[in-house]
Amino acid sequence: MISYIIRRLFILPVILFGVSLLIFSMIMMLGPYQRLSTYITDPAQLKGVDDVEQLIAKYGLDDPWYEQYGRWISGVAQGDFGWSESAGAPVTTAIANRFPATIELALLSLIPVIFGGIILGVISAVHHNKLIDHIIRIFAVIGWSFPSFVFGLLVLMIFYGVLGWLPPGRLSNWATEIVRSAEFANYTGMYILDGLLNFNFAVVLDAIRHMIAPVITISILWWAFILRITRSNMLETLKKDYIRTARAKGLADNIVVYKHAVRNALIPVVTVAGQMILGLAGGLVIVESIFNIRGLGQFMATSAQQLDYPGVLGGALYFGLLLILINLFVDVSYAVIDPRIRLE
């Protein structure tokens, strides 16, 4: 397995090179005047037509494509993705500022989504066509059929609008003042973890309170999906000959189900979970917008709406890198779950 991971890491630069070429080809589809927005940080720089032409010549936006690619990839290697007009900051700064919020939400959602979906799916399959199976299946159909924006608005309306328990945003005003103060050290930008590291448990509890509603929204929707995949694979696995043989030998049902059947049924679930992790780590536009979380999803949506080309292209490169790393994680997970799989 170690040799496989090393080989994949060596291939990583080649894949990133291909991704960079693809993204650069998207850039070249834009005209020089549109690409000039990457370098403009102040509208005062564009006082007249002559200024525009001078800036195009200055940044070589009418040079051959290979010269432009060399300059662009050199800037990307140094973390220069251009200026994001929608964020009012360099693209790298905009992504770095929003990354902790998205990752915090993703990490808090992963555990209940994956383990909750798998556990419910296994229970449903083991008690096939019994009352608990029917209840779980109804729950799955309702959860998967519910549009995320409708469910998110319902959660916000009930738990904040009516009960006043779970407010939107990431922190209350008083907690925001503490986090921005000189006494509070921001190690990661994830308020729950930073609150623990600063031993400020009031901030931790406030951050958790603000995260509960979006985590519930994400969990209900993804639970239903993971549950259905797990149930269907478990039902198929429980019909295999080796499961019948294990039961014929007198093995306890718990050992047959959890030691033999579950591990074999999890391979498709891991594939789906990898795509789910990509979606969570890339930012959830609807959930972040409803609960006013300044994450990557909200940034990408705003960039697209305002035709902020540097922001969109910087986000695309981030997604490309994320996809490569998650695919590596999924491939390695196959061998961990099922020892019969050899990564050679």
Automatic annotation (TrEMBL):
Domain ABC transmembrane type-1 residues, every copy: 99-334
Topology versus the membrane: Multi-pass membrane protein
Gene Ontology MF annotations: dipeptide transmembrane transporter activity
Predominant localisation class: membrane
Gene3D superfamilies for this protein: MetI-like (1.10.3720.10)
Subcellular location: Cell membrane
TM helices/strands, residue ranges: 9-30, 105-126, 138-163, 211-230, 265-291, 311-337
Keyword NADP recorded: no
UniProt keyword Chloroplast, yes or no: no
SUPFAM superfamilies assigned: MetI-like
Cellular component GO terms held in the UniProt record: plasma membrane
Keywords from the named record: Cell membrane, Membrane, Transmembrane, Transmembrane helix, Transport
Sequence similarity: Belongs to the binding-protein-dependent transport system permease family.
Name of the protein described by the UniProt record: Peptide/nickel transport system permease protein
